[in-house]
Amino acid sequence: MFVATSLVLPGQIVVLVLCCLPGLGRAAREAHGGLSSGLGSRVLWAVNAGGGVHVGAHGIRYRADPLNGKIGVASDYGTRLPIMRAWPLDQLLYQTERWSDHSFGYSASLPGEGAYTLVLKFAEVYFLHSQAKVFDIRLNGMDAISNLDIFSRAGPSTAHDELLPFSVSGGRLFLGDREGDVPDGPSAAFNGKLHIEFVKGEYDNPKICAMYIIRGLPQDVPPLPPLPSTNESPQSRDGDKRIADDDEDEGEDEEEVEDEEVVEEEGNKKESTRQIAAPRLKRVTETTRRGVESGPRVPDPYASDNGSLTFPVLVAFGVFIPTLFCLCRL
Ligand SMILES: *[C@@H]1O[C@H](CO)[C@@H](O)[C@H](O)[C@H]1NC(C)=O
């Protein structure tokens, strides 16, 4: 797939340059933001949780978080770290987030019947181990993802997108499977809105970095850039540079990715569905791992307090007082 992308991309640029010479700036922008897909116009709703208005990769325009000042905490803790596996324009999306020590959620109006895909963007920027932040996600009251553990899915500070296909028909909202098919999956009454709920469990708080809804299937959602260790694509060179130093820590993640690919081959699934297939597999492996553990862990989310202000305040004083001292002596 990566080979294919690198062949296709120059072609796209050539076509763009030939077709719209006056729009050269646009072509250049799109090439820089990743793949040009005209996706921006098909996005019905997009939110930069815990942050402000932001235009990300593929021209998607995220609105400011409507929950600002209402529930939970808007955190930019992640801005101190680069996010692996995210397009440059999407870095900020993954670096800001909303978390809350109670369940919280968003509602989006949908234009009516049809197939949709919800894209949920996550990156673990705080915890350095799995089984720290674990939570569920519900759509209109139905379990869509159970026990999401972002760290165990993607590792630290790495983009992880969950794709949730669903469709609206005959006054009901149906959860889709990974192809977006909705044969007789779970359904709930539909009142014109999609309700996305991040459910607090016994582990650390639920959170969300950014999300959007498109009209279409998961195949229509552009994939994340390839993992640095497996990439041959010119688009991921930035990513290479950024995390070159962390490469040694990546052993576990690589293993997990290989697992995912094996399953993909077995199921004869297309590469483009890999992100959707992964969560299911992961949940299976998580369960297995938990089963092997000797006893239940006692989760104590408050053991690691969020004293993130202490350090900046100390630094500020450390700079301020000597400066004042020098100024007074002049
Ligand atoms: C601490 O902050 C992180 C990063 O914003 C957040 O994910 C986590 O839920 C917070 N935990 C607690 C216990 O406050």
At a glance:
It is built from 8 helices and 15 strands. The chain has 330 residues and is of the alpha+beta class. The model is unreliable at 1-36, 231-296 and 298-304 (pLDDT under 50).
Shape: elongated
Proportion of helical residues: 25-40%
Distance between the termini: 65 Å
Following the backbone from N to C, one meets helices and strands in this order, namely HHEEEEHEEEEEHEEEEEEHHHH
Characteristics of this structure?
alpha+beta; transmembrane helix; transmembrane; 330 residues; single chain; carbohydrate binding; carbohydrate metabolism; disordered N terminus; four-stranded antiparallel beta sheet; MLEC; binds 2-acetamido-2-deoxy-beta-D-glucopyranose
